[in-house]
Amino acid sequence: PAVAQLSTEQAVYHFLSGYTAKVAGTEIGVKEPQATFSACFGAPFMALPPTFYARLLMEKIETHDVKCWLVNTGWAGKPYGESERIRIAHSRAIVKSVLTGRLDSVEFEVDPLFGFRTPLSCESVPADILNPRRAVTDKSGYEHRAARLADDFQEEFRTV
C-alpha cells in the first residue's frame, strides 16, 4: 500500500529489517527494482548492533507517544513494468494528511498478511494505491508476490 499505520513493534521490526529496493539509475547493473534489506536502513554505517538502535527507537516512540507510518514511494499492486511508481503528488498528499492528523479520523482495515493498518481513504489519493490488494485484477499473482515478500522479510529478520 501507499501508506500504513504501524504499531510500535511493527515500526521497530521495519526499522530493523531496513527494506528498500535497488533501483535502475541509482545502482550499477540494475535493470529493474530489486528488493534489498539493510538493518536500520544503513547497516554498514552503524557503530553498534542494530538491536541497540531498535531499543532506542522503541523508547522514543513510547516516551513521546508517536504514531508511526510507513510510506511507500515505489510501486503498489502490480509488478514493475506493469504499473508506474506512486505519483509524487500522492506521496505529498499522504505525508500532508499524516502531519495534519487527517488520517487519524479515517477508517482503517488490517492487512491480512502483514498486520499493519491501511487507511480506506486519504484526500487526493486514489483508493487503488491505498489498498492495491482490492484493485489488482490478477489476485493470485498479487498474493503470490505479497507472500514472497513476507517470506523475504522473515528470512532477512533471522540475520538481524
3D structure, described in words:
The protein is α+β, with helices and mostly antiparallel strands. It contains six helices and six strands. The protein has helices at residues 8-17, 50-63, 88-100, 127-130, 132-135, 139-157; strands spanning 3-6, 19-22, 34-37, 68-71, 108-110, 117-119. A hairpin with a 6-residue loop joins strand 5 (108-110) and strand 6 (117-119). Helix 1 (8-17) packs antiparallel against helix 2 (50-63). The protein is globular and about 45 Å long. The two termini are 25 Å apart. 18% of the residues are buried. The mean pLDDT is 90.
- Helix-strand pattern, N to C? EHEEHEHEEHHH
Largest sheet: 2 strands, antiparallel
**Mean residue pLDDT:** 90
Q: How much helix, percentage-wise, in residues?
A: 40-55%
User: What is the tally of helical segments?
Assistant: 6
How large, in whole angstroms, is the Cα Rg?
16 Å
User: Structural class, from secondary structure content?
Assistant: alpha+beta
Instruction: Name the poorly predicted regions.
Output: none
The global form is: globular
Give the number of DSSP strands: 6
Percentage of β-strand residues: 5-15%
Main sheet: strand order: 1-4
Terminal Cα span: 25 Å
